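Hey, quick one: can you model this chain's 3D structure?
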Amino acid sequence: MSVRSARGAARPAIVALLALLAALARPGAAAAQGQAPPAAPPAAAQNPSPMVEETRAHERLARREPPLALRTVPGPAGRPVELLVPDRARGAVDLVVHFHGASWLPAQAVASLRAPHAAAIVNLGAGSGAYHRAFTDPAAFDSLLAGVARALSAARADVRVGRVTLVGFSAGHGAIRAILREPRHLARVDAVLLLDGMHTSYVPEGAPLATGATLDTTNLVAFAAFARAAMRGEKRFVVTHSEIFPGTFASTTETADWLLRALGLRRTPVLRWGPRGMQQLSEAGAGRFALLGFAGNSAPDHVDHLHAMPELLARVTAP
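Sure thing. Here's the predicted structure for all 319 residues.
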């Protein structure tokens, strides 16, 4: 049989199969066939895009051992915190506290800064809730800073903690929003960098905005307060976001839009190369607050923000 005749013979069977599938897709069709309707799949924690992105470079930093002395200090939830102390530390040494992500990368980013900085790296597992719960009690952040101060003075008697910068990648933002809710801590923190990680829940939970839902802003008001201080020149605050849509909780684009509305700011469209081959699409800001929007709705696009940390950290820690 020729290829053409084989295709012709198969066509009626395909048409019949499609007709059967269409009939079964109608409500009540399964019951009419004497079958129980299929059970709905369990709700997923998120429904990320299955898209595979091959346009942008997604360059990755080469791992290097930073010239920092490594120690550990007690951290929240019984987890040790990695502390890196610069060799040339003297007097007041600025501290970067990084939440979530492979420790070598923030350590390398901190080591690349012009002025010597210490780095405390906190990893508490998956999900922003784990980070938020660990710092709900203000004493947890007090304890972390005190432990870092003791370790610095033990390493070099003349060293103390200076300015404090908080960095949250992805789920790590949960710790920062909990820390900034305490007025004492909001006053103590000098700068914040959020790397594609400002999320919140929908109200009702799991229902996207397109269904008429709203955002749970209780997780965002602390960021708005810090942003207003940055707009006045009192703090520094840089927020980055991708175009990823998790589906069951608010995306970083949606929370960024809410933040700009709360601040009375508008985006400006741009077409600009970012670090590691990222493509910047928008920006907004005033004073020392900046929000940067980047292209991409795939997993590599999300990780791009972490690997862009050296450049972004330099921006948020600038004098």
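One thing worth noting: The CA atoms of residues 270 and 281 lie 5 Å apart.
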